[in-house]
Design brief:
Number of domains: 1
CATH class: Mainly Alpha
Distance between the termini: 5 Å
Radius of gyration: 21 Å
């Protein structure tokens, strides 16, 4: 009996493809909203590919997908704060590391936490239950990403009270909540709404073992129904 693999080549390929799509969407919406959010941030669908992998392949796969997006995003360029700007010796040494972790590494990796509802979603007997678990997962994951940006903003990016946002001065934590919420909350709403539509009308995107009908092209008659063999069963074969 062969030892079961955690990820098959097919699953790894899907993770890579969806991570690439997420990165492309992030860069595209970043260009569109350049100048709107002066300290970074954009509105769009960048979290959506990670959400799809979360409900298609599970928690570990979506976590890995989000982590890959984080790393590749960093390769495109990052801004690291100078530790010398802090008076605290600990922050002088660890500040840059913590800032990079919050702003880049953890932010998109946390999007993969939508996958914690993977099993509950798969076991959902009716569409309403599946929709509920999709909403829970995407909202929680989106809020985790939002929290990363809020903490990073409060610790590293507050100003001297000069340039504000929506009337909130930039020297308070409220500024970080408002500024990051201005793009994070719309992102959560947009991506959650699209995921609900996918769950109801395009469930095959979220099910790697989706049952489909094979249709005779000449007669247009249903010949048979086939089900894609699950990765677990394939890995269990000798």
């Amino acid at each position: 009996m062969k030892k079961e693999k955690k990820f098959s080549v097919r699953v790894l390929a899907e993770i890579a493809i969806f991570a690439a799509i997420a990165l492309a969407l992030d860069m595209l919406q970043g260009g569109i909203f350049r100048g709107v959010f002066l300290s970074g941030g954009s509105i769009g669908f960048a979290m959506l590919p990670i959400f799809i992998i979360a409900y298609r392949r599970g928690f570990l796969a979506s976590l890995l997908c989000g982590f890959i997006v984080s790393l590749t995003q960093m390769l495109a360029g990052i801004y690291v704060i100078n530790g010398a700007t802090f008076d605290n010796p600990f922050m002088q040494a660890m500040g840059p590391f913590l800032q990079v972790m919050l702003d880049y590494v953890l932010a998109y990796t946390f999007v993969g936490f939508a996958g914690i509802f993977y099993k509950a979603f798969k076991n959902g007997e009716v569409t309403k239950k599946k929709v509920l678990f999709v909403i829970l997962g995407t909202v929680i994951a989106g809020l985790l990403k939002y929290a990363c940006h809020v903490v990073a903003g409060g610790l590293f990016w507050l100003g001297d009270g000069g340039d504000g946002f929506w009337g909130v001065p930039n020297n308070t934590w409220l500024y970080s909540f408002v500024y990051n919420g201005a793009y994070s909350i719309p992102n959560i709403i947009i991506c959650t709404s699209v995921m609900v539509v996918i769950t109801v009308y395009y469930p095959q995107l979220l099910d790697a073992n989706y049952k489909r009908e094979v249709v005779n092209e000449e007669t247009n008659d249903n010949v048979e129904e086939v089900k894609v063999e699950s990765e677990d069963k394939v890995n269990e074969k000798c």
